[in-house]
Write a structure and sequence with these properties.
alpha/beta, Rossmann fold, 3-stranded mixed beta sheet, 12 helices, binds nicotinamide-adenine-dinucleotide, binds threonine
Length: 335
């Protein structure tokens, strides 16, 4: 097991900060927002175990790897007074289809380890879900929080399983389980990890290096997307929300939806030479065609004030600037 990180997180007047080396959680530098003591008071989960004062700091463990040897993790949790687990480990949609057995192990067995740890140690638990938790029989435009979910990937099946198990454990044992369904997340720091939305990251790197991008999806494939900083902020704000405000345990969050052609057009406003060709990959196209084209995040907006700050125009400007800086710092050519 590799432990991605241990973070001490402050409460009340201080910022909630998490740092991690890789993945979605790689760089968390989070907005300041006080954590009220009320969520602690409202939590059946913690209230039964111990009374925590507002001065005490939530301490967050972010997992990137699992198959935890139980003793060692337990040690980490106890010795560091961990109060929250944020569980990010997963094989994404396309790579999961290429290795179903491994995806099952990581995404389902690994998650069960995390549920057990959370229950045994009275930890609060955040697990991300995804647009991939929906399937061809779900309403696609927009997909609401509660509807038919019959995904056709092992990734989607494992995520629905996680949503349902978490909610079950919440209702049965009071586990403070929280889950956000992320759109495709776009970040300069994350190397595409085998997802169906990877093109939306790769296109920026290609635009600034060769000026050419070969897209594996059709030009008109519309999917929900989100800038990494909105994703991080949503996660933190959701974790900080008082339990009494939550009418659900699993929420959609949305920011924008675009097609490959639309993002390419927006990039061309900065880099007119960008050339995009299309060579459809049938596995990823089939997956994309089964996912929502838009997310309905009305409940997140109403219950805990979710609001994105990045639309397509701002996302493209930010990504081009960030990729340019990253390539320059790495000594790579920038066109
Ligand atoms: N990136 C997105 O667009 C997106 C969208 C929706 C939800 N999510 C969710 O966010 C989480 C992180 O996604 P990401 O984009 O950072 O993915 P990623 O592929 O970059 O990282 C996934 C994590 O899983 C771990 N992992 C990979 N292979 C493993 C293995 N063999 N054994 C154990 N652990 C392994 C990795 O260490 C990594 O930390 C996942 O749960 C994913 O479902 C991501
Ligand atoms: C959408 C998300 O879950 C991931 N980026 C994937 O494409 O698999």
């Amino acid at each position: 097991m590799q432990l991605c990180l241990l973070v001490s997180v402050s409460t009340a007047a201080a910022p909630l900060e998490m740092f991690c080396r890789r993945s979605l959680s790689r760089m968390w530098s989070l907005p300041r927002r006080g954590v009220s003591s009320s969520h602690r008071e409202m939590s059946r989960w913690k209230r039964t175990e111990s009374v925590q004062t507002p001065e005490e700091k939530p301490r967050i463990l972010i997992t990137e790897w699992q198959m935890f040897p139980n003793l060692y993790l337990l040690e980490v949790i106890v010795n560091n007074g961990i109060t929250w687990l944020v569980h990010y480990s997963a094989l994404l949609s396309a790579v999961g289809e290429a290795n179903v057995a491994l995806a099952r192990k990581i995404n389902i067995t690994g998650l069960h380890n995390v549920f057990d740890l959370s229950l045994e140690n009275c930890l609060r638990l955040f697990v991300p879900s995804t647009i991939g938790a929906f399937g061809p029989s779900s309403p696609r435009d927009p997909a609401p929080d509660l509807c038919i979910q019959r995904p056709r990937t092992i990734y989607g099946v494992s995520k629905v399983h996680g949503e349902l198990m978490g909610e079950y454990l919440h209702h049965k044992y009071g586990l403070d389980f929280r889950c956000l369904r992320y759109p495709g997340v776009i970040s300069v720091n994350t190397t595409p990890g085998g997802g169906t939305t990877d093109y939306a990251v790769q296109i920026f790197h290609d635009a600034l290096s060769t000026g050419q991008h070969e897209c594996y999806l059709r030009p008109d494939t519309r999917l929900p997307m989100m800038h990494i900083s909105d994703c991080h902020r949503a996660t933190v704000e959701f974790m900080q929300t008082s339990e009494c405000q939550l009418s659900l345990r699993t929420y959609n969050i949305a920011a924008m939806s675009f097609t490959p052609e639309e993002v390419a057009q927006e990039i061309r406003k900065h880099l007119p030479h960008l050339k995009v060709t299309y060579k459809t990959d049938s596995v990823r196209q089939t997956i994309a065609d089964s996912w929502p084209v838009r997310f309905d995040d009305t409940n997140a907006r109403r219950d805990w004030g979710w609001e994105p700050t990045f639309g397509l125009e701002k996302l493209v400007t930010d990504m081009l600037q960030s990729v340019r800086i990253k390539r320059t710092n790495e000594g790579l050519p920038v066109s």
